[in-house]
Amino acid sequence: xIEGDFDALGKYGQRTAMLPYPDWTYFSFxxxxxxxxxxxxxxxxxxxxxQASEETPSPVRLAExxxxxxxxxxxxxxxxxxxxxxxxxxxxxxxxHESTLRDLYATLKASQTAPYGFxxxxxxxxxxxxxxxxxLLEDAGLILIPGDSFAxxxxxxxxxxxx
Length: 163
Fold this sequence. Notes:
Radius of gyration: 18 Å
Low-confidence stretches: none
Strand order of the largest sheet: 1-2-6-5
């Protein structure tokens, strides 16, 4: 559905991997590419954590080995409550502009060939919107992007938002 250069995809995203410990997930979030090249530091950490998890007896030991934050049940409950609240606010903005988004989608070639493509379009649109939001928050000094342009953690449960 998307044509053009890599920037049209949005520059941030999340990778998630289930760990061999019951209900534990590893995730990284940040830039996929830096200066037109793959974010090798991120890719390397993702791979090394995945490999080490097979030989490390617990999520606590894995987090210690890689100096990663470990989000246990109480932390995850706070994150989820915040996410639910903020998602409701974001949804209200999208619903306020729903007709404009549907009109935009109707101008795309994909809208003619993919009758159920609006969901795919909206997923892309949201991805691009949050990429720009991250940049605006950084520019305003409200968040700090780590030096390798990504962050990673271990999370009790599914870090993608499901249970």
